[in-house]
Amino acid sequence: MRLTGYEIFAQQYDPVWWEKKEMDTIVEFLALKNPIDHLEFMSKPNQEVTKKAISALFYPRSMERKSVLLKRGMVFLDGKERELMLFTGGFAFSRVELDSLVTLLLDASSSGKIKQLGPDELNRRFSLID
Asked: What is the DSSP letter of 114?
């Protein structure tokens, strides 16, 4: 069970290692950057709301509430398939790129060749992001 109590919604909650790993995997998959450290990231005027949401969900300051992933799944938005991710501090939609997901999970190279992984390694990778 993902939710174990009120604590994850508390201001001082410090995510456990697997929750941090899950958030790091999402950051890597979505190719996000900390807007404070990378001023060029999301620098267009129409991206300001998205930039603030990324900062709040994935790069909170030391005294701000840390978000953790509660649930994720596929939804249709404007007739297109998107991934909905629900966090303790908000939610996000992403475009799902199958090639990117395969590359991340299975170590596929740009040539399309997939690194052979054993069942234990595959299970570990899928468990870390599920």
From this structure: B
pLDDT tens, residue by residue, 96-115 = 654 555 555 555 445 555 56
Task: Pick the closest to residue 99 from 110, 86, 87, 85 (CA basis).
Answer: 110
Task: Quote the pTM value.
Answer: 0.62
b/e per residue 39-71 (b: at least 16 CB within 10 A): eeebeeeeeeeeeebbbbbbbeeeeeebbbbee
What distance in Å separates the CA atoms of residue 33 and residue 59, rounded to the nearest whole number?
9
Instruction: Name the token pair of 105.
Output: 């999970």
